[in-house]
Design the sequence.
């Protein structure tokens, strides 16, 4: 797989509301599936499918600990990407509000 296809795979994996929520919830910590499944609106099988997509894209890594599978963000720079996107959106909204307020 070439670099461009790998980039697309990572960005597509992140471009789903549930997967984005999973990445943000993990942040700098390691959590088991049971912890990830708390306070969410999707089933454990649905969560497992999303975790697999994130793992296949190289965003998450897993480790079996006893009976539980624990997940963590493999490369913390992915969190920087999310923060940058949030800042861009925030700046765009701020600029739009300033433009609308100036009319």
Sequence:
């Amino acid at each position: 797989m070439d670099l461009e296809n790998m980039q697309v795979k990572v960005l597509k994996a992140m471009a789903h509301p549930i997967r984005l929520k999973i990445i943000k919830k993990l942040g700098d910590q390691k959590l088991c599936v049971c912890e990830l499944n708390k306070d969410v609106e999707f089933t454990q099988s649905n969560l497992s499918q999303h975790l697999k997509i994130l793992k296949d894209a190289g965003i998450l890594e897993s480790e079996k600990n006893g009976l539980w599978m624990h997940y963590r963000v493999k490369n913390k720079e992915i969190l920087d990407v999310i923060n940058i996107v949030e800042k861009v959106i925030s700046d765009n909204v701020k600029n739009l509000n300033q433009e609308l307020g100036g009319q």
